[in-house]
Protein backbone atom coordinates (compact mmCIF):
# COMPACT_ATOMS: atom_id res chain seq x y z
CA UNK A 1 0.00 0.00 0.00
CA UNK A 2 1.25 3.44 -0.91
CA UNK A 3 1.76 5.62 2.10
CA UNK A 4 0.23 9.09 2.06
CA UNK A 5 2.28 12.27 2.26
CA UNK A 6 1.19 12.81 5.87
CA UNK A 7 2.49 9.38 6.94
CA UNK A 8 5.80 9.92 5.15
CA UNK A 9 6.18 13.38 6.70
CA UNK A 10 5.40 12.06 10.18
CA UNK A 11 7.91 9.22 9.72
CA UNK A 12 10.59 11.66 8.58
CA UNK A 13 9.96 13.90 11.61
CA UNK A 14 10.20 10.86 13.91
CA UNK A 15 13.54 9.83 12.41
CA UNK A 16 14.86 13.38 12.69
CA UNK A 17 13.83 13.75 16.34
CA UNK A 18 15.21 10.31 17.28
CA UNK A 19 18.49 11.10 15.50
CA UNK A 20 18.83 14.35 17.44
CA UNK A 21 18.17 12.56 20.74
CA UNK A 22 20.67 9.86 19.82
CA UNK A 23 23.35 12.47 19.07
CA UNK A 24 22.62 14.37 22.28
CA UNK A 25 23.01 11.11 24.21
CA UNK A 26 26.11 9.95 22.35
CA UNK A 27 28.12 13.18 22.28
CA UNK A 28 28.93 13.29 26.04
CA UNK A 29 30.27 9.72 25.92
CA UNK A 30 32.26 10.54 22.79
CA UNK A 31 33.71 13.63 24.47
CA UNK A 32 34.77 11.59 27.51
CA UNK A 33 36.55 9.06 25.29
CA UNK A 34 38.31 11.72 23.22
CA UNK A 35 39.52 13.64 26.28
CA UNK A 36 40.83 10.45 27.88
CA UNK A 37 43.07 9.86 24.84
CA UNK A 38 44.20 13.48 24.50
CA UNK A 39 47.85 14.34 25.00
CA UNK A 40 48.26 16.13 28.36
CA UNK A 41 50.16 19.08 26.89
CA UNK A 42 47.48 19.63 24.25
CA UNK A 43 44.68 19.47 26.81
CA UNK A 44 46.41 22.00 29.07
CA UNK A 45 47.00 24.39 26.18
CA UNK A 46 43.35 24.43 24.99
CA UNK A 47 40.16 25.43 26.74
CA UNK A 48 38.19 22.63 25.08
CA UNK A 49 39.22 19.60 23.04
CA UNK A 50 36.82 18.21 20.44
CA UNK A 51 39.15 16.12 18.29
CA UNK A 52 42.68 15.71 19.69
CA UNK A 53 45.53 16.35 17.33
CA UNK A 54 47.91 14.25 19.41
CA UNK A 55 46.74 10.97 20.92
CA UNK A 56 48.21 9.66 24.16
CA UNK A 57 47.76 6.80 26.64
CA UNK A 58 49.30 8.72 29.53
CA UNK A 59 46.08 8.84 31.55
CA UNK A 60 45.54 5.09 31.26
CA UNK A 61 49.15 4.36 32.14
CA UNK A 62 48.83 6.54 35.22
CA UNK A 63 45.57 4.89 36.33
CA UNK A 64 46.88 1.35 36.06
CA UNK A 65 50.03 2.34 37.90
CA UNK A 66 48.00 3.27 41.01
CA UNK A 67 47.20 0.57 43.54
CA UNK A 68 43.89 2.10 44.61
CA UNK A 69 42.28 1.96 41.17
CA UNK A 70 43.52 -1.55 40.41
CA UNK A 71 42.25 -2.85 43.77
CA UNK A 72 38.90 -1.12 43.29
CA UNK A 73 38.53 -2.74 39.86
CA UNK A 74 39.34 -6.10 41.43
CA UNK A 75 36.64 -5.64 44.08
CA UNK A 76 34.03 -4.60 41.52
CA UNK A 77 35.05 -7.44 39.21
CA UNK A 78 34.70 -9.93 42.07
CA UNK A 79 31.26 -8.54 42.90
CA UNK A 80 30.13 -8.67 39.26
CA UNK A 81 31.27 -12.27 38.72
CA UNK A 82 30.87 -14.01 42.07
CA UNK A 83 27.83 -11.97 43.13
CA UNK A 84 26.04 -12.59 39.83
CA UNK A 85 26.62 -16.34 40.03
CA UNK A 86 25.29 -16.49 43.60
CA UNK A 87 22.29 -14.32 42.70
CA UNK A 88 21.37 -16.50 39.74
CA UNK A 89 21.64 -19.66 41.84
CA UNK A 90 19.47 -18.25 44.64
CA UNK A 91 16.91 -16.65 42.30
CA UNK A 92 16.46 -19.70 40.05
CA UNK A 93 16.40 -22.18 42.94
CA UNK A 94 13.87 -20.14 44.91
CA UNK A 95 11.70 -19.64 41.81
CA UNK A 96 11.76 -23.36 41.03
CA UNK A 97 10.69 -24.30 44.56
CA UNK A 98 7.85 -21.76 44.54
CA UNK A 99 6.64 -23.01 41.16
CA UNK A 100 5.96 -26.53 42.50
CA UNK A 101 2.35 -27.16 43.47
CA UNK A 102 3.29 -29.68 46.16
CA UNK A 103 5.22 -27.10 48.23
CA UNK A 104 3.67 -26.81 51.69
CA UNK A 105 3.10 -23.26 52.87
CA UNK A 106 3.51 -21.93 49.35
CA UNK A 107 1.11 -19.01 49.84
CA UNK A 108 2.90 -17.90 52.98
CA UNK A 109 6.27 -17.76 51.21
CA UNK A 110 4.76 -15.94 48.21
CA UNK A 111 3.17 -13.31 50.44
CA UNK A 112 6.40 -12.91 52.42
CA UNK A 113 8.39 -12.31 49.21
CA UNK A 114 5.71 -9.97 47.87
CA UNK A 115 5.90 -7.84 51.01
CA UNK A 116 9.56 -7.17 50.32
CA UNK A 117 8.51 -5.59 47.02
CA UNK A 118 5.79 -3.42 48.56
CA UNK A 119 7.51 -2.30 51.76
CA UNK A 120 11.13 -1.20 52.07
CA UNK A 121 12.39 -1.16 55.67
CA UNK A 122 14.70 1.75 54.91
CA UNK A 123 18.37 2.56 55.24
CA UNK A 124 18.72 2.47 59.03
CA UNK A 125 17.12 -0.99 59.56
CA UNK A 126 19.26 -2.38 56.73
CA UNK A 127 22.37 -0.88 58.30
CA UNK A 128 21.50 -2.32 61.73
CA UNK A 129 20.86 -5.73 60.16
CA UNK A 130 24.19 -5.79 58.35
CA UNK A 131 25.95 -4.63 61.49
CA UNK A 132 24.25 -7.25 63.71
CA UNK A 133 25.24 -10.02 61.29
CA UNK A 134 28.89 -9.00 61.53
CA UNK A 135 29.13 -8.14 57.83
CA UNK A 136 30.40 -4.59 58.23
CA UNK A 137 33.58 -3.81 56.32
CA UNK A 138 33.46 -7.10 54.39
CA UNK A 139 32.71 -7.92 50.77
CA UNK A 140 29.68 -9.93 51.91
CA UNK A 141 28.00 -6.67 52.96
CA UNK A 142 27.94 -5.75 49.26
CA UNK A 143 26.62 -9.14 48.09
CA UNK A 144 24.17 -10.63 50.61
CA UNK A 145 21.75 -7.64 50.92
CA UNK A 146 21.38 -7.61 47.11
CA UNK A 147 21.54 -11.36 46.61
CA UNK A 148 18.15 -11.69 44.92
CA UNK A 149 15.22 -9.68 43.64
CA UNK A 150 11.60 -10.48 44.43
CA UNK A 151 10.54 -9.31 40.97
CA UNK A 152 12.99 -11.63 39.24
CA UNK A 153 11.86 -14.50 41.48
CA UNK A 154 8.22 -14.04 40.44
CA UNK A 155 9.17 -13.85 36.75
CA UNK A 156 11.25 -17.01 36.99
CA UNK A 157 8.49 -18.75 38.94
CA UNK A 158 5.96 -18.03 36.20
CA UNK A 159 8.47 -19.28 33.63
CA UNK A 160 8.99 -22.60 35.46
CA UNK A 161 5.22 -23.03 35.80
CA UNK A 162 4.88 -22.93 32.01
CA UNK A 163 7.26 -25.89 31.61
CA UNK A 164 5.23 -29.13 31.12
CA UNK A 165 5.05 -31.31 34.22
CA UNK A 166 5.76 -34.33 32.02
CA UNK A 167 9.43 -33.32 31.85
CA UNK A 168 9.76 -33.46 35.60
CA UNK A 169 7.80 -36.70 35.83
CA UNK A 170 9.99 -38.34 33.19
CA UNK A 171 13.12 -37.27 35.04
CA UNK A 172 11.74 -38.62 38.31
CA UNK A 173 11.03 -41.98 36.63
CA UNK A 174 14.66 -42.06 35.47
CA UNK A 175 15.74 -41.66 39.09
CA UNK A 176 16.40 -37.92 39.34
CA UNK A 177 15.88 -36.17 42.65
CA UNK A 178 14.41 -32.68 42.93
CA UNK A 179 17.91 -31.22 42.78
CA UNK A 180 18.69 -33.38 39.75
CA UNK A 181 15.55 -32.18 37.98
CA UNK A 182 16.48 -28.59 38.73
CA UNK A 183 20.07 -28.94 37.49
CA UNK A 184 19.51 -31.23 34.48
CA UNK A 185 16.09 -30.07 33.26
CA UNK A 186 15.15 -26.63 34.53
CA UNK A 187 18.46 -24.79 34.24
CA UNK A 188 19.20 -25.84 30.62
CA UNK A 189 15.75 -24.72 29.41
CA UNK A 190 16.06 -21.36 31.19
CA UNK A 191 19.36 -20.22 29.69
CA UNK A 192 17.79 -17.15 28.05
CA UNK A 193 16.20 -16.05 31.32
CA UNK A 194 19.41 -16.61 33.27
CA UNK A 195 21.40 -14.62 30.69
CA UNK A 196 19.02 -11.66 30.86
CA UNK A 197 18.81 -11.61 34.65
CA UNK A 198 22.54 -12.25 34.88
CA UNK A 199 23.19 -9.10 32.89
CA UNK A 200 20.95 -7.10 35.22
CA UNK A 201 22.66 -8.51 38.29
CA UNK A 202 26.14 -7.96 36.85
CA UNK A 203 25.41 -4.32 36.03
CA UNK A 204 23.97 -3.77 39.52
CA UNK A 205 26.97 -5.34 41.24
CA UNK A 206 29.47 -3.52 39.01
CA UNK A 207 27.74 -0.20 39.79
CA UNK A 208 27.62 -0.85 43.54
CA UNK A 209 27.99 2.52 45.20
CA UNK A 210 25.59 3.24 48.07
CA UNK A 211 26.34 -0.03 49.87
CA UNK A 212 30.05 0.65 49.52
CA UNK A 213 29.63 4.05 51.17
CA UNK A 214 27.52 2.67 54.04
CA UNK A 215 29.20 -0.62 54.88
CA UNK A 216 32.85 -0.34 53.77
CA UNK A 217 35.50 1.60 55.68
CA UNK A 218 38.65 -0.16 54.49
CA UNK A 219 40.24 1.50 51.47
CA UNK A 220 41.22 -1.78 49.83
CA UNK A 221 37.60 -3.03 49.89
CA UNK A 222 35.98 0.00 48.30
CA UNK A 223 34.26 -0.77 44.96
CA UNK A 224 35.18 1.09 41.81
CA UNK A 225 32.18 3.43 41.80
CA UNK A 226 33.04 4.76 45.25
CA UNK A 227 36.59 5.48 44.12
CA UNK A 228 35.30 7.21 40.99
CA UNK A 229 33.03 9.39 43.10
CA UNK A 230 36.01 10.43 45.18
CA UNK A 231 37.96 11.25 42.04
CA UNK A 232 35.14 13.21 40.41
CA UNK A 233 34.07 15.19 43.48
CA UNK A 234 37.35 16.18 45.02
CA UNK A 235 40.91 14.95 44.83
CA UNK A 236 41.33 15.66 48.53
CA UNK A 237 38.79 12.92 49.30
CA UNK A 238 40.75 10.19 47.54
CA UNK A 239 41.08 6.98 49.53
CA UNK A 240 44.73 6.66 48.57
CA UNK A 241 46.70 9.71 49.81
CA UNK A 242 49.38 9.18 47.17
CA UNK A 243 46.81 9.51 44.38
CA UNK A 244 45.30 12.58 46.01
CA UNK A 245 48.72 14.19 46.21
CA UNK A 246 49.46 13.41 42.58
CA UNK A 247 46.09 14.74 41.43
CA UNK A 248 46.58 17.96 43.36
CA UNK A 249 50.19 18.47 42.33
CA UNK A 250 51.61 19.87 39.12
CA UNK A 251 51.91 16.59 37.26
CA UNK A 252 52.22 15.78 33.59
CA UNK A 253 48.70 14.29 33.33
CA UNK A 254 45.89 16.76 34.17
CA UNK A 255 43.33 15.53 36.73
CA UNK A 256 40.45 15.99 34.26
CA UNK A 257 42.05 13.66 31.74
CA UNK A 258 42.60 11.05 34.47
CA UNK A 259 38.95 11.28 35.50
CA UNK A 260 37.77 10.80 31.91
CA UNK A 261 40.00 7.75 31.49
CA UNK A 262 38.68 6.31 34.75
CA UNK A 263 35.09 6.67 33.53
CA UNK A 264 35.94 4.92 30.25
CA UNK A 265 37.64 2.01 32.04
CA UNK A 266 34.76 1.57 34.47
CA UNK A 267 32.20 1.46 31.64
CA UNK A 268 34.17 -0.82 29.33
CA UNK A 269 33.48 -4.26 30.94
CA UNK A 270 29.69 -3.93 30.69
CA UNK A 271 29.94 -2.60 27.13
CA UNK A 272 32.04 -5.64 26.19
CA UNK A 273 29.76 -8.20 27.89
CA UNK A 274 26.45 -6.88 26.58
CA UNK A 275 26.82 -7.89 22.88
CA UNK A 276 27.46 -11.52 23.86
CA UNK A 277 24.21 -11.63 25.87
CA UNK A 278 22.12 -9.57 23.47
CA UNK A 279 20.71 -12.61 21.65
CA UNK A 280 19.24 -13.84 24.94
CA UNK A 281 18.10 -10.42 26.07
CA UNK A 282 14.78 -10.03 24.22
CA UNK A 283 13.75 -13.62 24.82
CA UNK A 284 14.73 -13.41 28.47
CA UNK A 285 12.71 -10.25 28.96
CA UNK A 286 9.57 -12.20 27.98
CA UNK A 287 10.09 -14.69 30.81
CA UNK A 288 7.00 -14.99 32.96
CA UNK A 289 5.01 -12.50 30.87
CA UNK A 290 1.36 -12.99 30.04
CA UNK A 291 0.93 -14.40 26.55
CA UNK A 292 -2.33 -14.14 24.72
TrEMBL record:
Native organism = Paenibacillus phytorum
Keyword Transmembrane annotated: yes
Identify the residues that the record assigns to the ABC transmembrane type-1 domain, covering every copy: 73-276
Enumerate the UniProt keywords alphabetically.
Cell membrane, Membrane, Transmembrane, Transmembrane helix, Transport
What are the subcellular locations of this protein? Cell membrane
Main location as per UniProt = membrane
Family affiliation: Belongs to the binding-protein-dependent transport system permease family.
Q: What is this protein called?
A: ABC transporter permease subunit
Chain ranges passing through the membrane: 12-34, 75-96, 108-128, 140-160, 181-206, 257-277
| Lineage of origin | Bacteria, Bacillati, Bacillota, Bacilli, Bacillales
Q: Give a yes or no for keyword Transport in this entry.
A: yes
Q: Which domain of life is it from?
A: Bacteria
The topology of this chain with respect to the membrane is:
Multi-pass membrane protein
Which Pfam families does the record associate with it? Answer: BPD_transp_1
